[in-house]
Amino acid sequence: MACGLQLVREVEAAMLEADTQMAVYLAHETQELLHIYESVRTATNTDSATSAAAALMSSLSTDGYQIVVGGSQSKLVPDMTIANIQGKLSGYGVEEQLPTIAIVAHYDAFGAAPELAWGADSNGSGVVVLLELARILSRLYASPRTHPRLNLAFLLSGGGYINYQGSKRFLEDHLDASDSPLLSETYYTLCLDTLGSGTSLRLHVSKRPKETSPGHSFYQALEEEGSKAGLVVEMVHRKINLQEDTQAWEHEKYSMRRLPAFTLSRLQGPKTGERGSILDTRDTIDVAALTRNTEVVASALLRHIYNTSVDGIFDNGLAVSEKSILSWLDLITSQPRSPQLLSGKNSPLVTTLHQILSRYTNEARVTYLKADKRDPEWVFYDVTKASMAAYAVKPAAFDFLLTLGILAYLGVIYVFLQVR
């Protein structure tokens, strides 16, 4: 098993670093594939043969396999359509005069094989936490007694693995447009990424927040709530490297526009095999840990919003529900989420996520954009699944020996007829 996982990681790394095009096919493990593997392994293992003749006879009697892949030729996708799903909860008072906290999570996934890119942890877990926060906060914002003077913006961004192009478009819409003041006065942007397990939470920042800033207040609340839950919470400072073609974390897109932002993740750093892997499946998620992490984030956020203790605030159905967490997780892992599989305006997953945000937030909408191919340079193909057939064939040496045997037989018959 360990060898198999290592092989998959090596294949994924090679595909990401390759400068030339190559075709790599991945398939689910089945009894038929295991039988083919065992046959090939036995045929190529000549060390166990007692003699050269035995090795030759073994190679002649063992079947080989010819692999044929069916389906149409893959074609380049000329334009990739990316969808942003966004909604907001308006604070009490004049909305344009209130500060905003933005909560962001990209919903797409990446892997060596598009049809196996489930992205359960990266970044399905971030989407799960965002949806649960929207469910809880919507009830608090609906009551006059708990309606704070603060706007909340929710963004399920597309193109997370294409240099966070969904967030780039979101910033352009709300910062460069004069008629959209939502982000004009932002306390901070909280990006959620890879929170499905672990015993620690890390707040990744490009610039350490000042001690008097709202971002620092949230971090203090996160530390205290994490300590109560037995979690280690730390801040990881990493400057933005402008020499790199892509940003390491989603919050860097916001930091580059001089907005306070950070990414909350269980990971120590962005460059790890756990992000963008076909091994990131539903089975890798620790539901209890994900529920606990969601509770810590929700408690810290509410503690900062209301500037008070959150003891008792989760009563009356407001608590983070493991049942709810499971339902969001089942939804986000119900299909592979490679960008080309979600492209277009008829994606069932995008439609469902939009319906959920419409239920819990105001003015929920889907914004479509054409991904900028220069940021960074990328290529996607339309055919993501093919049928593979394995035909049992004899080696060429067997055909040669069979031909010699037939010729010898015919020679014997000819000589016999001539003698008679």
UniProtKB/TrEMBL annotation:
UniProt-annotated location(s): Endoplasmic reticulum membrane
GO biological process: regulation of signal transduction
InterPro entries per UniProt: Nicalin, Peptidase_M28
GO CC annotations on file: endoplasmic reticulum membrane
Residue ranges of the TM segments: 396-417
Membrane topology listed for this record: Single-pass membrane protein
Designated name of the protein: BOS complex subunit NCLN
